[in-house]
């Protein structure tokens, strides 16, 4: 197996899947795959887990929260 010095995603990070694993997911494990890093991900909608190659994941968009307005 090949070892990789750096990885694009970290365990616990929220990511967005594409292809066979669309939607918001959380990385739960990093796996050294034959063709590069793979990740075990958990769908945040409760639909299950999957193992996907790094190329099929993207950074999840940060949820926009409005900051409380300051009173004068």
Protein topology:
Blueprint: E1 14-17, E2 23-33, E3 36-43, E4 49-53, E5 57-59
Antiparallel strand pairs: 1-2, 1-5, 2-3, 3-4
Keywords:
mainly beta, 43% strand, single chain, 72 residues
Give structural notes.
With 72 residues, the chain is an all-beta fold. The chain has a domain at 14-59. It is built from no helices and five strands. Strands 4-3-2-1-5 form a five-stranded antiparallel β-sheet, with no helix packed on it. A hairpin with a 2-residue loop joins strand 2 (23-33) and strand 3 (36-43). The relative contact order is 0.27. Mean pLDDT is 78; it is low at 63-68.
Portion of residues within helices? under 10%
**Any low-confidence stretches, pLDDT <50, length ≥5?**
63-68
**Shape, per Cα inertia axes:** globular
Q: Note the total helix count.
A: 0
Rg result? 15 Å
Could you give a short account of the major beta sheet? 5 strands, antiparallel
Order of helices and strands: EEEEE
């Amino acid at each position: 197996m090949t070892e990789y010095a750096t990885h694009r995603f970290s365990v616990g990070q929220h990511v967005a899947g594409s292809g066979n694993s669309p939607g918001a997911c959380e990385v739960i494990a990093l796996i050294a795959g034959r063709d590069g890093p793979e990740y075990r991900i958990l769908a945040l909608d409760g639909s299950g887990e999957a193992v996907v190659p790094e190329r099929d994941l993207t950074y999840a968009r940060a949820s926009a929260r409005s900051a409380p307005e300051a009173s004068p």
